[in-house]
Amino acid sequence: MKNSKDKKEQAGLFGQLDILNDNSNDSLLDFKIDKKIGSGSFGKVYLVTNKKNQLQFALKILNKKHLYNRNQIKYAISECNILKSCEYQFITKL
To answer: I need a labelling partner for 7 at 20 to 30 A (CA). Which of 33, 49, 61, 67 fits?
Structure first.
């Protein structure tokens, strides 16, 4: 059973993003957050499972206010552009 900290953290995630991918019909509500697998200066990374097809993904959650306050938006945009240019079977297209 999850502790109250995990439940609060998961509830907060659903409030941060409305759409996971503009090219799909999946929303954050279509995924079950399994566990936190990492964190860094930009945000936190979670292992999630798609409720429709049971596929697992790593989902990175960025705190836009934190990025703006620390003047790090350009780094997040650079990371996004790099991921958009990648063509690899284990990287989901953005």
So the answer is: 67
What pTM does this model have? Answer: 0.64
- Let me know if domain 4-85 sits in CATH 2.60.40.1240: no
Q: What is the distance between the terminal CA atoms of the chain, rounded to a whole angstrom? A: 33
Report DSSP letters for 44-88, one per residue. Answer: EEEEEEETTT--EEEEEEE-HHHHHHTT-HHHHHHHHHHHHH---
CB neighbour class for 52 (10 Å; exposed up to 12, middle 13-18, buried from 19): exposed
Sheet strand arrangement including 43-50: 31-39, 43-50, 56-62
pLDDT of 94:
66
Q: What is the pLDDT of residue 37?
A: 96
| pLDDT for res 4 | 54
Low-confidence stretches of the chain (pLDDT < 50) are: 1-2, 10-23
